[in-house]
Amino acid sequence: MAKYELLGVGNALVDVLCNVDDSFLHDHGLVKGSMQLVDESEASNLVSTMSTPHRASGGSCANSMAGFASLGGRGAFIGKLKNDSAGKAFQADMKMLGCSFAAAPSEQGLPTGMCLVFVTPDAQRTMCTYLGTAALLAPEDLNETVISGSKIIYMEGYLFDQPVAQEAMVHAAGVANKAGGKVAVTLSDSFCVERHRDAFIELVERNTDILFANEDEFISLYQAENFEQAVELSSGKCDVICVTRGAKGAVILSETESIEVKSEAVDKLIDTTGAGDQFAAGFLFGLCKEEDLTKCARIGAIAAAEVIGHYGARPEKDLAALVAGRLG
Which domains does the chain have, with CATH numbers? Predict the structure, then answer.
């Protein structure tokens, strides 16, 4: 039996969340719903404008691992941190969640990164990310024993903005493939896909078993005119493709079937941050338990619905209990 059911590989960041209105985005030249990279100075300036910010350990893949742990999964995470106060807090959070942190923090160099999340009244989130040392994840930072001992490894596309991190992702996929494990990848962001489309396509078509994307990212990857054309162009590229479509739910594509799963009802939509991360957590948890694709997607939808009902990208309720109550 694999030591870990799921290993996450991604950016280790501290999230800083704040409510803003549309005029704030306009005044600061921010495109609603996007993720853009900023330098340390820009990040500091934006933080100074944030009223009553909420801080929490984050990063897309790390948020998924928090959800996976809440579901009862055995998980580990690899990301690059500095041994500073933020880095120590991140490690403590992962330990508290029951997810092993399987990397050695650096003693020198750039600080631990942060992601500034601006939430507008329509619950959309706009992100400005200072990656810090997270962007410099390199092949030598990977624990190959942990990778080989994991049933599935799950990697985030946000890592693709630095060549050394791209190299680390490809290397991790190769180690997992050789050990007989499955490789899952999330595209993360349409702008990220546009910057690195060729590299993404190569990773998806050569090394990826399970692909996660929202509708815009999926269409962008294949430069399709619409969702239906993207489905045609993606046929046979990897074993399973999960496309989230917001309130319309999700579509799961495999070699033999196309499954549509409705989104779960939410009492009040508060913040869409982390919805895709938690859908992936639930879906991958189901796969690790060898559930069928429909049930995997239902678990993902339940996890996503929980996180959009409050601020922050990690679950506040016991996801295992939620799933048991709804699916039995």
Answer: 4-11+60-108+135-327 (3.40.1190.20)
